[in-house]
Structure formats: structure tokens, C-alpha cells
Design goal:
About 40% of the residues lie in helices and about 15% in strands. It is built from 16 helices and 15 strands.
Length: about 425
């Protein structure tokens, strides 16, 4: 969950005192070689913006199959950098699915754009092309500057179809893949394309928060293939400052009398923030990227275990609907429960599970419901998002779990739901 405090994965003292191991809904898996990599970085010459950042970026770009990756301080900063790179500004509109973390909307909004929320498939939480069309139809002129589709829970949306529609309507496309490192999508030629390759989109963003597939502490990245866009991404990471001689406008100040560039010189292209990431974070990230195939395989194994154990309970508990075109690296394991039919309060269920050391979460409150956006745009009804939200619950899933842990969660669910 992008931007969430680690405290959201903590539990009552009584659960810890009982001796029962805690199962947070998400958790990093840090091993001895990860620690050794961080220690080596701490003993090195650079703590930030050094060679380890560059190695992490090139490794990530190679893994996802894109020309370039730019690492940064968080998934949220990656979203903002992408918005700045697209030159989003006042008067522009961005379409964002209602089921996502607030940063997907807030980042382009902070860059100046207004937000229009799209509905989602209630069975997957994903934006569909028809949801994008409906969002465009609600706009007075039917025009928008960009769409930020989300690969929710790790499962890919049909970004190719969304991008096709977006191009016809003149929209840029930024994939929010904060959940989807390691996921691939079956393209038109039946070949799996890694999410992040930007085959049909302009940019893709990732998050490396501790509950994600790999952890760097806090961190994110933007991937892309357009050199000009990626140059803008880099400027947005570092205050809007350039040190490229070819981009200087004040050559009288930039150059010495001999014609050489003054070594201290830089220019501000547009005011920006510091979204840099440290060598310390990227040392951990490089170590974790080596384990990505193992982490993905483990998450897929645990998801299959959940699927099998929950299958007999499908009248009461249903996993998210699966799209066979998505080779999914599951970030979270989400189920849908008819709490009304079962006469069970979701909050009470979460507290009861927490007392047993089983952490759960809700991903997400529809963003259009948030007070800021209702005050700005008015109340609205998106039936797919509302239906999804009313029934959703996220169960524990992380690479440190075992199938016995999954069985424990399912048994507790059955007991507390009386099924």
C-alpha cells in the first residue's frame, strides 16, 4: 500500500503475548545478503546519488524491458515526476480509476491537473476501456490530457486496449504499476510483455515500499522509452535543475574565458522538488531485484493455495476475478465477502482476526469518496467501485509466508464468518 505507515501492519499486544506468530497483510523479506549489501553501501564513498543508483536503474530497466528507468524516493514521487514530464498543468484533466491509493489522483492534481474518476470492474477493481469511455462521456467537452490506469493488486488491466482508446482521443498514458513489478501481459502476438516495458504507454511507475514485491525501504521508479520524456522525468527528480551543457541558456555564465564549462554551474529549468533516492536504498534494491523471480513465484504459489482452500467457500468468499492474459505477480490477495448477507460487520471481523495475529486491510476506499475530492467535484456514484468497496478484504500475502499460514488464515475466516 503506497505511502502507508508500517503501523498499519501491527497488531494488539495481546496477540504478540499469546505466542502466536503475527501475519501482517504485507511485509518485506530481508535476508543476510540484503543486509550485507546495505552495509557495503554505508562503507562506500557515496550515500546518495552515486553509482549504486545507476546500477539499480539499469538493472530494473533490463528486467522490465524498457529503454530507461529513473529511480526516486517513492511511488508517489514517481507519479508526480511522470505528471511533470507530461507537462500537465492548470486546465488539464486526468482520468484515474476510483479504486487505487489516493496518490494516483493526488500526484497529477498537485502538478496542476483536475481529476475525473472512472469506474472499475467490481469483480477485479480494474479500469476497463468502457470505464474510460464513460468517464470521457461525463466531461463537458469529452477531452482529457492523460489517463493513469492502475494494475490493481498486481493483476494487469488491459492497458493495450485502454491505450488504443486513449490515443484516438489524444490522451497520454501513465501506467500505475505500484502493485505490479514482476507482472506480464499477453500482448497481441501472444508474447508476454513485462509491465513497465511501456509498449503501449508513455510511462510506467513502480513503488518499492516494504509491502511491495521488492523493498528498498521507501522508493519508486519511472520507466519509459522516449528520451525527451525521460529527460523531463530526471529534471523533475532533482529540483528542475540541469547540468547538461547543451541545455544551458546562459553560456556567458556557464563557460570560462577558455571556453570550458564552469564546474559549479547549473541552471534551473522550472522549480521542482528533491525526489532523489539514496545509494543505501538502491543497494538494498539491487540485492532484492536478484530475488524477484523467487519472490514472484512464492506469491503466485501462495495465491494458488488461497484459491484452492477458498474454492469450497465460493458462495461466501470469492477471490478477485482473474484475467488469463495477465501473468500476475500478486502484490495483495483480495477477496470479496457479502458482509450483509452473512450479517457480519467488516470492522468487527478485522478486529477479531487481528486479535489472533492475522492482519487484514481494505484496498481501497474509493478515492472519489474522499472529502477533499467530494468538496471539489461533488458527490458521485460509481456503481462498480461502490460494489467492489462494500465487499472487499485483503488477506495476508508476502514472500515470508508458508502454505500453513494460508491455511491458518482461511480457517480463521471460516470460524469468524460461521461458514
Amino acid at each position: 500500500m503506497r505511502g502507508a505507515s508500517a503501523k498499519l501492519s501491527s497488531y494488539p499486544e495481546r496477540a504478540r503475548e499469546s505466542g502466536t506468530p503475527n501475519l501482517p497483510y504485507g511485509r518485506q523479506l530481508i535476508e543476510d545478503d540484503d543486509i550485507e549489501a546495505v552495509v557495503a553501501a554505508l562503507k562506500g564513498d557515496f550515500l546518495t546519488t552515486g553509482p549504486t543508483v545507476s546500477r539499480f536503474e539499469s538493472t530494473l530497466a533490463s528486467i522490465v524491458g524498457t529503454r530507461e528507468a529513473v529511480a526516486c524516493s517513492s511511488g508517489t514521487s514517481a507519479l508526480y515526476m511522470a505528471a511533470r514530464a507530461l507537462n500537465l498543468k492548470r486546465g488539464d484533466t486526468v482520468i484515474v480509476p476510483a479504486i487505487t491509493f489516493v496518490a494516483t489522483a493526488s500526484a497529477p492534481h498537485l502538478a496542476g491537473a483536475e481529476i475525473v474518476f472512472s469506474d472499475v470492474d467490481p469483480e477485479t477493481g480494474l479500469m476497463r476501456p468502457c470505464d474510460l469511455e464513460a468517464a470521457l462521456a461525463r466531461m463537458p467537452d469529452g477531452k482529457a490530457a492523460a489517463v493513469f490506469p492502475v494494475h490493481f493488486a498486481g493483476q494487469s488491466c488491459d492497458v493495450a486496449a485502454i491505450a488504443k482508446l486513449a490515443r484516438v482521443r489524444g490522451l497520454k498514458v501513465v501506467e500505475d504499476a505500484a502493485h505490479a513489478l514482476g507482472t506480464a501481459w499477453q500482448g497481441d502476438k501472444d508474447a508476454l510483455v513485462p509491465i513497465g516495458a511501456c509498449e503501449t504507454s508513455d510511462l510506467t511507475i513502480f513503488s518499492f515500499h516494504p509491502v511491495k514485491t521488492i523493498a528498498v525501504g521507501e522508493g519508486g521508479a519511472v520507466t519509459g522509452n522516449d528520451p525527451d520524456l525521460m529527460r523531463q522525468v530526471k529534471l523533475a527528480r532533482n529540483h528542475g535543475i540541469t547540468r547538461e551543457v547543451s541545455e544551458f541558456t546562459r553560456t556567458d555564465a556557464a563557460l570560462s574565458t577558455s571556453g570550458a564549462t564552469n564546474p559549479w554551474y547549473y541552471e534551473l529549468t522550472a522549480p521542482g522538488f528533491n525526489f532523489r533516492i539514496s545509494d543505501i536504498n538502491c543497494a538494498l534494491g539491487l540485492s532484492q531485484l536478484k530475488k524477484l523471480p523467487r519472490f514472484v513465484a512464492k506469491r503466485q504459489q501462495l495465491a494458488k493455495c488461497y484459491d484452492a482452500l477458498l474454492a469450497p467457500l465460493s458462495d461466501a468468499i470469492r477471490p478477485l476475478k482473474r484475467d488469463p492474459r495477465s501473468a500476475t505477480s500478486w502484490h495483495i490477495y483480495v477477496v470479496r465477502i457479502d458482509f450483509g448477507e452473512l450479517k457480519r460487520d467488516r470492522g468487527d471481523l478485522m478486529r477479531a482476526l487481528s486479535a489472533e495475529g492475522i492482519g487484514t486491510q481494505v484496498h481501497y476506499i474509493p478515492v472519489h469518496r474522499q472529502p477533499y475530492y467530494t468538496q471539489r467535484y461533488g458527490a458521485m456514484m460509481l456503481p462498480g467501485a461502490e460494489s467492489y468497496y462494500a465487499s472487499t478484504l485483503t488477506l495476508p500475502l508476502h514472500a515470508g509466508m508458508t502454505e500453513s499460514d494460508v491455511a491458518r488464515v482461511v480457517a480463521a475466516l471460516k470460524r469468524h464468518l460461521g461458514i
